[in-house]
Specification:
The complex is a heterodimer of chains A (440) and B (463). Chain A has helices spanning 7-17, 72-83, 108-112, 119-132, 196-213, 233-244, 246-250, 311-316, 349-354, 406-409, and strands at residues 20-36, 39-57, 60-66, 137-153, 158-176, 180-190, 222-228, 271-273, 296-300, 303-304, 325-326, 334-335, 340-342, 358-366, 377-389, 392-397, 401-405, 413-416, 421-423, 426-428, 431-439. Chain A is an alpha+beta fold and 440 residues long. In chain B, a hairpin with a 2-residue loop joins strand 17 (384-396) and strand 18 (399-405). The chains are: A alpha+beta (440), B alpha+beta (463).
């Protein structure tokens, strides 16, 4: 497809028509097989490609994109028209630079894998679960994506990047007239092959979680110690990440605006943005504006260290880009995190649970992001949570809400687990807080 | 009829090909759309863009399972159709039948004379800039945003039964928000509207509403945070619409039920779900609303469906596949957001119908409760739901007393439906720039609607 867009002649034309430009082309091929309600349901192939043009004309930024190679001329026209209304460009597009480190984001084995050959494995997984737990509706899917990304700018950047992604996901759904609905999932997604052994491990975990949740327990309104593990702790992190995003800072609505180098939460928390973890989904050698990516602390021992920026956002507040631009061909760059890592603590995950007399373990919640997220507030319905009684998980709690503020919570940490858990683009320990409010 | 004209040859070959296909069913959808986006956030113009898009997809049911291929290069449509059929042939595990659908040759134009493509980019930009400046005049606001979007979309659907449906839609909408801040207390005001009723109706004359949301955000800073617990609540038409959609609408989508014996038992037609005064309806046939259409993405004619009539479950939303499996009639609710996706069962314009109570009666009837207005968000896992209201007030002894902030409502769908004890007479439908998300397809244009309603025992979370 790439040559259909005639990138070379487009470059020539743009050189004539504007002060600076950036062309972003991508084509991706995604395919997947999906089982629904215990049976193979569909196979999909999605081919998509498109091109975005960001340019600077008369000092102002314009943008347009298209998925129709026959409309390139119009797209250039739209981008120029758009620049009449755009912001003044206070930044220069980067020159060609060397990467700071290598990181693996592509695995040819993913490209080679024939998903049709995964059908029998999918069937086998469903048969096996169904034989142990009757009356379940199981959905599962395998998918792979190969992405080609080209970035060209008028200052000499010419990046060509190929990346792969392989995903597996499974959901168990149980509907019971008395107990209601129980929906538990496991999923993994990364640039290299997920082995059958790993999938076997995920299925084992899923069954254990299901069996624990199949018993019900009651909780009274009040404040309790609470554990957030890899399934749920992201809900809390997302409040911090929204505040750390340079866009929020630039708009004057980050509660961390005046907190650089100040202690904001418990000193046991160190959180980094790390683009250099092989095969992890947020990894990259360059950001989407062609700057070499690098690792940076966001929060170090409880002290707030860095906002993240792309070129435009940084230029508006007199800062430098932190090489955190992300985009698709259809949008202008925005600051975005790569992979988030949080340092481990000192407590065994199992001991974290056994140390609690009465408390809750949260795994899934609905309604995240509806509250005053920027201020750190959250208020969510517990979709999947367990009552811990005398150090043991005694059953599932339902029909209740938890609410609080992440800055208060992370200043009241009981302990962090020694064990680290991977979840898409995040590596984190489980976190136990001294108390959280439960409303029923 | 651009799509038709420019690809006449392609369409002829595709039709021939579909006709000769040995599979059970096949469809080809070609879409061409263009549109503009404008986004002004705070002081900066974040985005002003126009774009042109083209693509297609093929879906094939050879015998027992679906193959689907989406693409941009429509000249190779026939090749992709063969690919979809090959995929479908690999699936042998499940017998799929499709409910009958009449062969249709028709076009469906949902576009008013005042279509957004009659306006140029500078008209659109100037209006957004004006609203943005009204918001910025309020010096107590920390930031604000104005977003505009229009899409002119032309779709051609060809099916192996011989249906050929051309549709053209012109959507435009706007969303404005204001954010006020006092330390860590951040409050917002918001409104959105958008549908197929044209530019003037949706975009012009919103100066006062911009002013109002700014003032509201500032006012909310001094509201008291709500105390957690169970309350009697009265919700306004916007929140009632979100409730109709999130809490009940998703449950009535038959793809969630048709292969799940336990869910079928729970969602048995004839079962009592609410009071005699409760009627919930899905109706894509209302003219020019955001969820309106004449034919769904499988070429089935749309119709008004009573989901709940007088408190009793009477219907649900279907694709041809789910209707056949449940031996019910098709409803024309199989919708795809764009050529990148296969159609799935979706809502259209979903609402709780009018009752007999007045708003004043409801407020007066509450000894201690909450009046909640507007929606900042809503989510469900089918059994439980949460919505955040934009603005709320405490009701004491039948009177609205003081403003509250951060009110998030939550509950169990089945219990909450039974707990609706008063229904107002002031039904309104709301479209907007947002929409519905399901199976990775978001935002699908829909409207939510309802009058004011009163619900007992709703859980409100809080610190």
């Amino acid at each position: 497809m790439e040559n259909k867009y005639c990138l070379e002649s487009l470059e020539k034309e743009l050189r004539k028509k504007c002060d600076a430009f950036e062309i972003c082309y991508s084509d991706s091929h995604n395919s997947g097989i999906g089982f629904e309600n215990n049976k193979l349901f569909s196979m999909e192939n999605n081919y998509s490609s498109g091109l975005g043009i960001r340019l600077v004309k008369n000092g102002k930024i314009g943008f347009s994109f298209t998925t129709n190679p026959e409309k390139i001329k119009e797209t250039v026209g739209y981008a120029i028209e758009s620049s009449k209304y755009g912001e003044r460009a206070l930044f220069e597009l980067p020159c060609r630079r060397n990467k700071k480190r290598e990181v693996k984001t592509y695995d040819e084995n993913v490209e080679k894998i024939d998903l049709k050959k995964r059908i029998s494995f999918g069937k086998q997984i469903i048969r096996q679960i169904n034989s142990e737990i009757p009356d379940l509706n199981i959905s599962l899917g395998f998918s792979k994506t190969i992405d080609n990304f080209v970035l060209i700018n008028s200052n000499g950047v010419r990046l060509e990047d190929k990346s792969s992604e392989y995903s597996f996901g499974i959901t168990l759904l149980s509907v019971n007239e008395k107990k209601g609905l129980l929906d538990i999932s496991e999923s993994k997604s990364r640039a290299n092959i997920i082995t059958d052994e790993e999938i076997g491990g995920m299925i084992k975990t899923l069954k254990t979680r299901y069996n624990k949740a199949n018993k019900t327990a009651k909780i009274k309104q009040g404040a309790y110690p609470a554990i957030f593990n890899k399934y749920s702790v992201g809900i809390l992190y997302s409040c911090f990440l929204a505040a750390i995003n340079g866009k929020t800072f630039q708009k004057g609505i980050s509660p961390l605006s005046d907190k650089i180098n100040k202690k904001i939460i418990d000193s046991r928390i160190t959180m980094r943005d790390n683009p250099f973890i092989d095969y992890m989904s947020g990894s990259a050698e360059f950001d989407a504006e062609g700057l070499p990516a690098y690792e940076k602390p966001l929060i170090e021992k409880g002290v707030f260290k860095n906002f993240i920026f792309d070129l435009k956002t940084a230029s508006l507040v007199n800062k430098k880009s932190t090489a955190n631009a992300a985009r698709s061909f259809a949008s202008q760059p925005q600051p975005s995190f790569t992979n988030i890592t949080v340092d481990a603590g000192e407590t065994d995950y199992s001991k974290m649970i056994s140390d609690i007399d009465e408390g809750i373990l949260i795994e899934q919640a609905i309604g995240a992001g509806q509250s005053n997220t920027l201020a750190g507030d959250f208020s969510v319905n517990i979709d999947l949570g367990y009552l811990i009684k005398n150090g043991k998980i005694s059953g599932r709690v339902k029909d209740c809400m938890i609410a609080g503020n992440v800055y208060d919570l992370f200043n009241d940490i009981k302990c962090l687990s020694k064990d680290l858990f991977y979840k898409s683009s995040m590596i984190t320990p489980a976190v136990c807080f001294n108390k959280i409010n439960v409303a029923v | 009829m651009n799509v038709k004209k420019s690809f006449e040859k392609l369409i002829k070959t595709a039709k021939e090909f579909l006709k000769n296909s040995k599979g059970k069913y096949g469809e080809i959808r070609i879409e061409e759309y263009c549109g503009s986006n404008i986004s002004i956030i705070g002081k900066e113009v974040e985005d002003v863009k126009s774009s042109e898009n083209l693509g297609g997809c093929c879906r094939a049911l050879y015998s027992n399972g679906w193959g689907f291929v989406s693409f941009n290069d429509i000249n190779d449509t026939v090749k992709y159709f063969i690919e979809a059929e090959e995929q479908s042939k690999c699936i042998r595990s499940k017998k799929i039948e499709l409910a009958d659908a009449p062969v249709v040759k028709d076009s469906d134009i949902i576009k008013t004379a005042d279509s957004p493509d009659k306006y140029n980019l500078s008209d659109k930009f100037d209006i957004c800039a004006k609203y943005s400046s009204i918001l910025k005049k309020n010096k107590k606001l920390q930031t604000s945003s104005v977003r505009y979007r229009d899409t002119i979309k032309k779709t051609l659907l060809l099916t192996s039964n011989g249906s050929e449906i051309y549709s053209e839609t012109a959507f435009c909408g706007i969303a404005c928000s204001a954010m006020a801040r006092d330390g860590s207390n951040i409050q917002s005001g918001y409104f959105t509207q958008g549908d197929y009723q044209g530019f003037k109706k949706n975009i012009l004359g919103l100066e006062d509403r911009c002013k109002i949301i700014g003032e509201r955000a500032v006012r909310l800073l001094s509201a008291e945070p709500v105390k957690p617990g169970k309350y009697v609540i009265i919700i306004d038409p916007v929140l009632c619409g979100v409730f109709a959609h999130e809490a009940f609408g998703h449950l009535s989508e038959a793809d969630f039920i048709y292969e799940n014996p336990n869910m079928k038992k729970i969602m048995k037609l004839g079962r009592k779900f609410g009071g005699d005064n409760l009627n919930i309806i899905d109706d894509p046939t209302m003219p020019n609303l955001a969820g309106s259409y004449k034919y769904d993405s499988e070429g089935v004619k749309s119709k008004k469906t009573f989901l709940i009539k007088n408190g009793i479950l009477t219907g649900r939303l279907h694709s041809r596949e789910t209707a056949s499996k449940l031996k019910e009639k098709t409803t024309g609710n199989s919708r795809a957001i764009s050529f990148g996706f296969p159609p799935i069962v979706r809502m259209s314009n979903t609402y709780i119908d009018n009752g007999k109570n007045t708003f004043n009666e409801m407020i007066e009837s509450a000894e201690y409760g909450i009046y909640a207005k507007g929606a900042l968000g809503g989510m469900t896992n089918t059994e439980m739901f949460t919505f955040s209201s934009e603005e709320a007030f405490l009701i004491e002894n039948g009177k609205i007393t003081k403003p509250l902030r951060d009110v998030i409502l939550s509950g169990n769908v089945f219990e909450t439906l039974k707990n609706i004890d008063m229904i107002g007479d002031d039904l309104k439908h709301h479209g907007g720039l947002g929409g519905c998300g399901k199976g990775g397809q978001s935002p699908l244009p829909v409207t939510d609607g309802g009058p004011h309603i009163r619900i007992k025992d709703v859980i409100i979370g809080g610190k």
